[in-house]
Write a structure and sequence with these properties.
By secondary structure, the chain is an all-alpha fold. The termini are far apart. 66% of the residues lie in helices and 0% in strands. Helix 1 packs across helix 6, helix 5 crosses helix 6 and helix 6 crosses helix 7. The chain has one domain: Uncharacterized conserved protein DUF2267 (Globin-like). Pfam families: DUF2267.
Length: 129
């Protein structure tokens, strides 16, 4: 999936304009790469559009930072210049789009390094919720 298509999918899922979707995508991928190991970040980078790779690829250290759900959302919100509610919708949209792009096994390998509440953002919201 090309970079522009990725942003369009995120915009549709999060209910935000394309420019905001771009900021949210870049912020989410950067934050995700901080929270997972360098090896998993490199594996994800291999599966995304070339233009998105710099946001996922990770320079040493290889060890992930340890931070929880609230800090994940705070970092995304700060980087994207949005409030927490938009950040949460954005993270959800980016993770769901990323899942479809990289494939189930690769995605699950990366998500296994995250706490359950962050992993839950990748799950579709049931209709009517």
């Amino acid at each position: 999936m090309a970079e522009l298509q990725f942003y369009e999918k995120v915009a549709a899922r999060a209910g935000v304009p394309p420019e905001t979707a771009q900021s949210l995508t870049e912020a989410t991928l950067r934050t995700l790469s901080e929270r997972i190991s360098g090896g998993e970040a490199a594996d994800l980078a291999d599966h995304v559009a070339h233009e998105l790779r710099p946001f996922v690829a990770k320079a040493p250290p290889e060890e992930p930072e340890v931070f929880a759900y609230d800090e994940f959302l705070r970092r995304v919100a700060d980087r994207a210049g949005v409030d927490q509610g938009v950040a949460e919708r954005g993270v959800r949209a980016v993770l769901q789009t990323l899942h479809r792009v990289v494939g189930h096994d690769e995605f699950e390998d990366a998500m296994s390094q995250l706490p359950a509440d962050i992993r839950a953002l990748a799950q579709p919201v049931p209709r009517g919720a």
